[in-house]
Amino acid sequence: MTQQAEDNGASDKDVCSICGGAGWVAVRDGRTGRMSVKTCRCRMAERLRKRCNVQPSQLERYTFATYKPEQCHPYKGDTQKDVIAQMGKVVKACSAYAESPSGWLVLLGKVGSGKSHLAYAIAGKLLERGVGVYWDTVPELLDHLRNGYKDNRYMDLLQSMMRVPALVLDDLGAEQETGWVTEKLFQLLNRRYMDRRSTVVTSNLNIRNSEVKLDARIRSRLLDRRLSQVLTLAAADYRMEVAA
Ligand SMILES: Nc1ncnc2c1ncn2[C@@H]1O[C@H](COP(=O)(O)OP(=O)(O)OP(=O)(O)O)[C@@H](O)[C@H]1O
Ligand SMILES: [Mg+2]
Ligand SMILES: [Zn+2]
User: Fold this and answer.
1) N or C: which end of the chain has fewer CB within 10 A?
2) pTM passes above 0.90
């Protein structure tokens, strides 16, 4: 184990293979030959992790490696084999999105089907690759915005959510619908829609159904085939199936 790793209480496996844990790398300018010092990708990722609104323990717990399609149970009608195959495809698509997060990714599914787990896994991968992420559940995000009114941080917060390279909105549909809520969500999503910024949305709502309780303009943008990839998780509630 290196001295640096020992100081950090980390194992060799955790030490960055690019900078060896130093946090910086020396780079030579190809044209002038001059050397300069740059912050290493691992240090950038560490800074981004502090700002993403996710606990490090959650990023460690909910990864692609810990998501097991073979442990998924069928919801109804499907066989276990079908669900495992479908969830294998969903994980592949989520992992591809984390590698190249273009457009929007919408994860739909029943309670406990693994939406948040996969959304955390995507966020973790993006952060590792140096992409800035902000994560929030929709009800909490709305609370953050409401609280922002008190200390005038409201506009800053909304703007930063509009502009962050990747936004994860977990649990769309779990919020109490009011005119203000719909307006704020529309403002945020519409800005990101127009700028085509990477956005992951999870929901228990079956937004494909036009009867669903969701603002029609938000629904239309989430279902825009030119921008958005919509994946349905066919798995049953993992919490109950595993316990059974
Ligand atoms: N295939 C799986 N392999 C391993 N763990 C899983 C799997 N599916 C779900 N889990 C675990 O089950 C729990 C519920 O998953 P998760 O929170 O992602 O569900 P959800 O779809 O977001 O549910 P909700 O609608 O209640 O928010 C989590 O602890 C998650 O890690
Ligand atoms: Mg969830
Ligand atoms: Zn490094």
Assistant:
1) C
2) no
